[in-house]
Amino acid sequence: MGRPVLAGRPCFGDSTGMADLAALLARADAHGSLPRLGGMARADGVVIASDRYWAFARTDGSIREGVMPRPPERLSRLPLLRGLVRLFSAMTPLFRGTGVARRYERPLLAAAMLIPFGFVFLPHRDGTVAGILVTLALLAWLFRGRTRSLHGAEHRAIAAVEERRLVATWGGDARPTRFARRCGTNFAALVLPVAALGDAVVPVPGAFLGTVLVAVLSLAFTMELWRAVQSSERRLARLFLVPGLMLQRLTTAEPRLGETHVALLATASVLRRELAD
Description:
By secondary structure, the chain is of the alpha+beta class. It has one domain (9-178, 252-276). It contains twelve helices and five strands. A five-stranded antiparallel sheet has the order 1-5-4-3-2, covered by helices on one side. 30% of the residues are buried. Mean pLDDT is 81; it is low at 1-10.
């Protein structure tokens, strides 16, 4: 799982490849049923993933491909647990040995996620300050360089798939929205108040054990809430997305056409394999 098929090799780089890309995008636009896609942006490229495949297109024109893990069917049906499984599966492109993150970045990401649990052993005020500083440092690192505009390009490419405007978007004739209902920013905006509420009302003895348990339950519950909100057409449900959509004005920027092309190359890589099956 996650083994690269085109590790670092240019994709659709020559005239024949561009013709193949145009044909693929046109085929996808005409297709009646395409998979739901998600993604993530990095400073040097865009990741696009379906339930089965992922692709990371770099700004230098190269692309890396892999296969998403397939968790047991039972786990995918259990409330709370299914959300955690989906959440950790989404991190696969980052942490696989042949994935997106560079070798030195993986321990940094792991440390950023684990270190905050150690703050429970500090005095309350010191722990709060340390948590804020680590969070700010992580955000600064995550959104360095061109990440914000590539984040917008990721959303635009996925919207182009859903609206069947891939060809027009590639040519610059269409500019689907750079904001997305399924963005991880929306999830983060939901999980923070859920975690704060859980920390206030869940009585668990032991500071460390309580912090870990509340964190895991908060992630699981928020995933269930997020799934419900996404599948609902009621306006009241969509109010839960408003904070995240507002945050996306900070976490995304209007992409240039070349940055949209990067996201569309990753999208095309995933769709090529999906449509071949």
